[in-house]
Amino acid sequence: MAQPPKEPIVAGLLLAAGGGRRLGGRPKALLTHRGRPLVEHAVRVLREGGCGPVHVVLGAAADRVRKEADLSGCVLVDNPDWEEGMGSSLRAGLESLALAATAADAALVSLVDQPGIGAAAVARIRAAYRSRDSLAAAAYGGERGHPVLFGAHRWTDIASSAVGDRGARAYLKEHEASLALVECGDIAEAYDIDTEQDLAHLE
Fold it and tell me: How far apart are CA 61 and CA 78, in angstroms?
């Protein structure tokens, strides 16, 4: 009898290294949301959206984050170069996934400072997985945003193009023809927690 198709392993990759420069140097991972550190909320969203394992890239105040946030069951990745910007965190995270014992078929990348993006959006992007060559991103009113999904065959090229604070932007632009945009504006809000004013979004 034919085996049923294997469920793909879509790992969650949470970028949580930011130092909150415009927030008076408060690390974003430790901002309080619903009574707990924001990084815990972001991990839960990835899991509830169907991602696992979850790798979390830490940078600013990494020791404090380890101490104050419950990240049990996650693979914690230190990015000593976090001040270089998001690109260095993306590289560190993809490298960690590539070396992991659990060979993931794809990485679903989310940012710690976007609490308006919940499990429903994560599940929608995860469902866009087709193969290890998959490339998909959430869209909000047609504009590309997060989370994004990278099939494992693309990780090496994405990592080599990820520099500064641009993350995978250059790669995504170059491979626009292969990119599946998945509208999520009906179920999520893509604001960032960047400034003191943005803190109003936290609960």
Answer: 10
Q: How many CB atoms lie within 10 A of CB 150?
A: 28
Q: How far apart are CA 92 and CA 70, in angstroms?
A: 21
Structure confidence at residue 6 (pLDDT) = 80
Q: How far apart (Å, rounded) are the C-alpha atoms in residues 135 and 80?
A: 28
Give all strands of the β-sheet with 106-111 in edge-to-edge order.
75-78, 54-58, 10-16, 106-111, 143-151, 135-140, 180-183
Instruction: Determine the Cα–Cα distance for residues 72 and 35; give it in Å rounded to an integer.
Output: 18
pTM exceeds 0.70 for this model: yes
What is the number of other CB atoms lying within 10 angstroms of the CB of residue 136?
24
Distances (CA, A) of 50 to 45, 55, 74, 140: 9, 14, 14, 21
Whether the per-residue pLDDT at 25 is higher than 80: the answer is: no
Helix, strand, coil tally for the chain in percent (to 5): 35, 25, 40
Of 7, 112, 4, nearest to 55 by C-alpha is: 112
Task: Decide if 149 contacts 126 (C-beta within 8 A).
Answer: yes
In the chain, what is the straight-line distance between the N-terminal and C-terminal CA atoms, in Å? Answer: 52
In the structure encoding, which two tokens stand for residue 103, read together? 């060979």
Residue with the two structure tokens 């839960």: 44
Mean pLDDT over 88-109 rounds to 95
Nearest alpha carbon to residue 32 among 198, 193, 190, 203: 203
Residue 33 in tokens: 């949301």
Q: Please state, in angstroms and rounded to a whole number, the distance separating the CA atoms of residues 196 and 24.
A: 9
